[in-house]
Amino acid sequence: MPRLQKNDNFIDKTFTVLADIILKILPTSKEEKQAFSYYRDGMSAQSEGEYAEALEYYYQALMIEEDPFDRSYILYNIGLIYGSNGEHIKSLQYYHQAIELNTKLPQAFNNIAVIYHYQGLKAANQKQFNISKSMFEKAAQYWEQAIYLAPNNYIEAQNWLKTTGHISNKYK
Predict the structure, then answer these.
(1) pLDDT for res 32
(2) What domains are defined for the chain?
(3) Are 44 and 36 a contacting pair, CB within 8 Å?
(4) pLDDT number for residue 172
(5) I need a labelling partner for 63 at 20 to 30 A (CA). Which of 12, 38, 39, 79 fits?
(6) Spatial contact of 166 and 136, defined as CB atoms under 8 Å apart
(7) How confident is the model at residue 24 (pLDDT cuts 50, 70, 90)?
(8) Packing angle between helix 10-25 and helix 30-47, nearest 10 degrees?
(9) Are 114 and 121 in contact (CB under 8 A)?
(10) If DSSP codes are grouped into helix, strand and coil, which group holds residue 110?
(11) CA–CA separation, 150 vs 136, rounded Å?
């Protein structure tokens, strides 16, 4: 059953109306339409901070959706929710699944890097310098991939790579 829009935002309402029209006119299967409907409802719930509800919709979409590209975005959004809730390990698992299906998802590479960087800072504060160094190296690898895919984005990450000496030769 479609989610009721609680948000009076004009853009959200417009998106919902356009998505409904597209769903009706596109020559797609009933299953594809249902998967998209769950995904759309998940995005709506997520934008309103209703994370548990959003996860339910995303999991429903995953059970139906077969297209790897579409599944990658569902997995990415699940990773976002877990990351927002501080469940970084779960978040990483979903981001990694997303990039296995779609290697051109710079935001997933960036978010993985952010988590590794956070873990590196945390380890450094606990004086676990070997772990910290390893986490920073992982962060650098994922930020480089994100920057490669979206060179005009992630300026702070680019600066961090340069100032810490983590940038590889291909980006100097």
Answers:
(1) 87
(2) 29-101 (1.25.40.10), 104-171 (no CATH)
(3) no
(4) 47
(5) 12
(6) yes
(7) low
(8) 170
(9) no
(10) helix
(11) 20
